[in-house]
Structure formats: C-alpha cells, structure tokens
Design a protein that fits this description.
The chain is 54% helix and 14% strand. By secondary structure, the protein is an alpha+beta fold. The protein folds into 2 domains: 63 residues, no CATH class; 36 residues. The chain has a 3-stranded antiparallel β-sheet, with helices on one face. α1 runs antiparallel to α3. The structure holds zinc ion.
C-alpha cells in the first residue's frame, strides 16, 4: 500500500482513537499514516470490485469442475470472512477501549 498524496510506501498504522475510525473499521478499512508527508488515509482490507472480477474469471478458466479446488476456495473464503470479522471486532474493541 502506498500514500495517496506522495506515493511513498513508508506507511504505518495510525492511531485508532478517532470516532469515525469505528465506522471505517466495520467496512474493513484501517487508518494509516504516511511517514514521509504525514497524510492520514484509509486502506481497505476488502477486495476491490476489479480484483473480485479478475479472480472469478481466473477460477472459471482454471479447472471449472474440480470439486477439491472449489472446496479449497470455499475454505479460503470462509477463513477470509472470519479474519475480516475478527479484525473488525479487534479494531472496534481497541476504539472502545481508547475512548474510555
Ligand atoms: Zn505521503
């Protein structure tokens, strides 16, 4: 991920103390801070629509009838959803804790 202002790759996780971060976290976004210019921005941990379409096309071109491949994808998807929910929950807990 790179800074949208200066394009630097030197970014770090920003403090999650801002109330609006709670909403962003629920959408799978994490606040980041650029070490070069100090710009604060959000990085989405969710796939973009383009990435989803590219993956869908790739899966169809690769062996479409492979059950094991489909099951592997289902497990990966379930794990990704779980990881996303866990990340959102952790972010929410941190925000609530820091607001007290
Ligand atoms: Zn920057």
């Amino acid at each position: 991920m790179t800074c949208p202002k200066c394009g630097s790759g030197r970014v770090r996780l920003s403090s999650t103390a801002k109330p609006e971060d709670r909403l962003e976290a629920l959408e799978g976004k994490v606040p980041l801070r650029c070490r070069e210019c100090g710009r604060r921005f959000y990085y989405s941990t969710q796939e973009t629509e383009l990435e989803r379409l590219q993956k869908a096309v790739k899966v169809r071109v690769d062996r479409p009838d492979s059950k094991s491949r489909r099951r592997k994808l289902a497990i990966q998807l379930a794990f990704a959803v779980f990881a996303l929910l866990a990340a959102a929950y952790i972010a929410k807990t941190i925000v609530e804790f820091s607001l007290e």
